[in-house]
Amino acid sequence: MKAYEYRHIVSFEETNLVGNVYFANHIRWQGRVREMFIRDYASDVIDALGQGLSLVTTRISCEYFQELFALDEVLIKMYATQITQNRVTMKFDYLRVRKDNTEELIASGEQQIASMMKEGTAMRPTPLPQSLRLALNEFEI
Fold it and tell me: Which residues are CB-contacts of 86 (< 8 A; sequence separation ≥ 6)?
């Protein structure tokens, strides 16, 4: 299985008073990984977003197994699990990278997006941009 990988170092601002990562950051990181994937593999989609295309999140989740703390290194792996005409579902694995370079699964998430086109104040489903579909095919499980 080929995964799109994004590395992140947890900052102090991402932690709460107890010292662990605030749970909502995992969801925020999913969006970041998705954006970096588009930048790296389907950059023409960025222009399309300025011309009425919207990638609307329709479903998002995260299941937590372990806590993360400030300065932990996290490897987030993204896979496409289902691609339809105008939707894609992605899986995210969050792995803590230890000093010895071993990895520990600390959370797993899922996100579904729909490709929509703005028409005035309305939105209508539109096929996923071809470059995005082709790129996601490389990471489909």
Answer: 114, 115, 116, 125, 126, 127, 128
Distance of CA 12 to the CA centre of its chain: 22
Please list the alpha-helical segments (H only) found in 52-110: none
Sorted by sequence, the CB contacts under 8 Å of residue 107 that are 6+ apart come out as: 26, 62, 63, 64, 65, 66, 93, 94
Q: CA 3, 7, 90: angle at the middle one, nearest 5? A: 40
**pLDDT attached to residue 104:** 98
* Model confidence band, residue 1 (pLDDT cutoffs 50, 70, 90): confident
The pLDDT mean for the chain works out to 96
Closest by Cα among 90, 86, 94 to 123: 86
Tens-place pLDDT, residues 112-130:
999 999 998 999 999 999 9
For the beta carbon of residue 21, count every other beta carbon within 10 angstroms.
Answer: 24
Q: Find all residues with CB under 8 Å of 39, minimum gap 6, and list them.
A: 46
